[in-house]
Amino acid sequence: KNEVFDALRRYAKPSQLWELYAFSCDPSTVDKKSDPKMRLMKEYHRLLSEGSEFEVEKYYFRNNWRLTTVNSSYSLCSTYPSQLIVPKSISDEDLWQASTFRAGRRLPIISWCNPVSGAVLARSSQPLVGLMMNFRNNADEKLVSALCTQNVDANLPPRKLYIVDARPRANALANGAKGGGSESSSNYPKSEVLFLGIQNIHTMRDSLSRLRDYVDAHGSISSNGSSSAVSLVGDRRNRGSTWGGGSLNSMTQFSSMLGEWLNHIQNILVGASWIAAQIAQESASVLVHCSDGWDRTTQLIALACLLLDPYYRTFDGFQALVEKDWLAFGHPFAERLGIPTVSENGGSQYELLRQPSVGNLTSSPSRGSLGTPGSSSNTSVQSQTSNNSSPILLQWLDCIAQLLRLYPAAFQFSSKFLVDFMDCVLSCRFGNFLCNSEREREQSGVTSSCHCMWTYLADLRASGGSFHEHINPFYDRERYWLPLVPPAAALAPTLWPQFYLRWTCPPESQGGGLESHGHSMRKKYEASVKSKEMAESRSRDIKMKMESMLTDLQRERRASSSALAMAQRARRENVAIKRAIQTIGCTVNFSTNENQVDKSEEMSYSFRREADTVSQQDDNADLSVSISAIEDSLVSETPSNQVCETLCPFRSREGCRWPHAACAQLGSQFVGLKANFDAFDRLSVKDCYFPKE
C-alpha cells in the first residue's frame, strides 16, 4: 500500500522531469527511431515542393523562399526550430541582425506559404520599439518587407502586408513602457497594423476556472456526486425557482461566466478567420505576433493554417500542424500545463524560466540559456511559474470543435479525437509535449526515452478500422478541398459538450449524437454490405457446386449412353455370330460344365470395323468371326454322346461311331471334338444378310 501511495504522490505532483509517468511507462517498447525534426523537414518539403496540396503546373513563387540552418545550434533563437523558412533575398547575417529587434529573438519567420498566389503567413514576437515607439531596425524592416512579394500579374495592385497584433491596443502600449510595443505602419511599406484584442494567459486561466464552476453548478450531476439540475427543477417549496443547486439569479450570474469564455473563443475564431480570408481572397501576406509570440500567436497561426490548407484537416496534416506551429516554434507546454522541465545542473523543476510577457525586455530581450537560475528563490519561482499555467491549447481545440460543428464534412477527424488528443497531452504519458521547446526536448532526450503519442493514436484508429470513433463519418475531401472562409455571422460559438460535459452529464455530452448516429448508421451499412458479400459468396459457391454436379451428371449420362451403345452393339454382334454359325449348319448352344469350367467349350470372337468410322452404332459394320476349340489333350476319351449327337454334323441314327466315324477322318472334334475351320476365320458376315428380330 505504501508503494502505491508513493507512486501516486510522485506521479501526481512530480518535482523533476524524470519523475513524470512518461519515463516509466513501459520504456522497453519505446520507438527510438521516432524523429520529430525529420517530420518537420518533411512538412517543409511539402510546403516548398510540388508535392503541395495546390495542384498547378508550375509554382512561380516557390523560388522566393529558402530553408536555412542558421539556427541549427539554437544560437539564433533558443525557442525556434533548427530549420527555418525565410525569404530568399534575406541572408543569414540579416537574420542575426533582425533577431535583436524582437522579444526573445523571435524574428519574423514564414510558417505557411501559398506557392500559387505567393502569399505567406509569418509569425514573430513583439518588436522592441520602446515607450516612444521610435526604435527601428533596418534588418527587421527588410525582412518584413521581403514577406510581401510582387504579384505575377502587373495589372494587379501591389501585394499588401497585414501586421496583426493579437493583443488589445492598450496592452501593446503598456508593453511599450517596458521596451516592447507594436510596429508603426510608416516604417513598413504597404503594411497595415491591426489589433485583435485577445486577452493574455492570466485572463484565460481565470475564465476557464469560472467555466468549470458554471459546469459543476449547472450539470445534471454536481462535482460532489449529488443530483442537481433535474432533481431540483420543480421543487415544491420554491415552485421551480431553483435550478442546478442555486437560484435563478445565480444561474444568470454563471451564464455570464459561460459567455465570458465563449467570447474568448469567438475572438480567436474571428481573428483566425479574418487572417485566412485576407490570404485566400486578397492574396495578402500576414505577419502575426503577440507579446512573446508563442501563445496567442500560435493559436491564430495554427487555426488560420487549418482554414487555409485542407491537408491540415486530415489526421496526418493535424499532426504536422501541431508539430510545426506548437512544438517546433516553442509553445511553453511545461509552463502552461504546470509540469516540471529540464535544467542542466539538476536543480529546481522551474529553474528554466521564460521571459514573462510584462518582463524587462530592454535588459534581456532573449530567454536565458538552459540551467541559468533566476534571481528569485525557488519558492517565488514556483509561485511565479505556476501562475503561468493557461488553457491555450484547450482554447485552440475548442475553436476547431466549433469549426467542426460549422463544417461537419470538412474534417477527417471527429470531436472525439480532439477530446482524446487533449487527454493524452494532459496525461503526461507521452513525451511529445514535455518541456518548453525543441531544444529542451532534444537535450533531455524525451524523444528516445518516452512513447510517441501519434503512434498510440494511429494504432488506436487502426484497431477500430473505418468504424473508429476518431474518424469523422461525414468527411468529404472532394467537397472541401479549398480554403474555408467562414462568415463572421456564423462564428457564434457554443459550449463544447463533448469535452466540458462528459463527466457532469454524459448523455448531453454527445451534442445531439450526430457523430455517434453517423457511426451507427455507417456500421449498419457496412454490416449490410458484408452480409450481402457473404450471401453473394455463398450463392457463387452453390452455383459452382451445381455446375460441377451438372458436369458430373452429363459425364455419367454420356458414360451410360456409351455403355448402352456398347451393349446394343455386343448384342448385335452376338446375334450376327450366332447366325453366321448357323449358316454353316451348326447349332449354337451355350452350356457350362460345373466341373470343367476351364476345360469346356471355349468360343472367342473378335470384330473389326472400318477405321475412323464416325458412327459407332452402324448396323452394317463388317464382322469377322473366328472359333477355336480346346486342345486334344483336354478332350475326354469317352466323349459325351449327348453333346456329340447334338452338335456333330456326321451323326447317324446308330449314334456316335467315334473313332470310326467320318468326323474322325477329318481329324477334328466339335465340342468334345477337335476342329479347326480355317475357312470360317475368313468368313465375313454382315447383319444385312439376316432379317432383324
TrEMBL record:
<feature type="compositionally biased region" description="Polar residues">
    <location>
        <begin position="361"/>
        <end position="374"/>
    </location>
</feature>
<feature type="compositionally biased region" description="Low complexity">
    <location>
        <begin position="375"/>
        <end position="387"/>
    </location>
</feature>
<dbReference type="GO" id="GO:0004438">
    <property type="term" value="F:phosphatidylinositol-3-phosphate phosphatase activity"/>
</dbReference>
<feature type="binding site">
    <location>
        <begin position="175"/>
        <end position="178"/>
    </location>
    <ligand>
        <name>substrate</name>
    </ligand>
</feature>
<dbReference type="GO" id="GO:0106018">
    <property type="term" value="F:phosphatidylinositol-3,5-bisphosphate phosphatase activity"/>
</dbReference>
<dbReference type="GO" id="GO:0005737">
    <property type="term" value="C:cytoplasm"/>
</dbReference>
<dbReference type="InterPro" id="IPR016130">
    <property type="entry name" value="Tyr_Pase_AS"/>
</dbReference>
<feature type="active site" description="Phosphocysteine intermediate">
    <location>
        <position position="290"/>
    </location>
</feature>
<feature type="region of interest" description="Disordered">
    <location>
        <begin position="511"/>
        <end position="539"/>
    </location>
</feature>
<feature type="compositionally biased region" description="Basic and acidic residues">
    <location>
        <begin position="523"/>
        <end position="539"/>
    </location>
</feature>
<dbReference type="GO" id="GO:0046856">
    <property type="term" value="P:phosphatidylinositol dephosphorylation"/>
</dbReference>
<dbReference type="Pfam" id="PF06602">
    <property type="entry name" value="Myotub-related"/>
</dbReference>
<protein>
    <recommendedName>
        <fullName>Myotubularin phosphatase domain-containing protein</fullName>
    </recommendedName>
</protein>
<dbReference type="InterPro" id="IPR029021">
    <property type="entry name" value="Prot-tyrosine_phosphatase-like"/>
</dbReference>
<feature type="domain" description="Myotubularin phosphatase">
    <location>
        <begin position="34"/>
        <end position="500"/>
    </location>
</feature>
<feature type="binding site">
    <location>
        <begin position="290"/>
        <end position="296"/>
    </location>
    <ligand>
        <name>substrate</name>
    </ligand>
</feature>
<dbReference type="InterPro" id="IPR030564">
    <property type="entry name" value="Myotubularin"/>
</dbReference>
<feature type="binding site">
    <location>
        <begin position="200"/>
        <end position="201"/>
    </location>
    <ligand>
        <name>substrate</name>
    </ligand>
</feature>
<dbReference type="InterPro" id="IPR010569">
    <property type="entry name" value="Myotubularin-like_Pase_dom"/>
</dbReference>
<feature type="region of interest" description="Disordered">
    <location>
        <begin position="361"/>
        <end position="387"/>
    </location>
</feature>
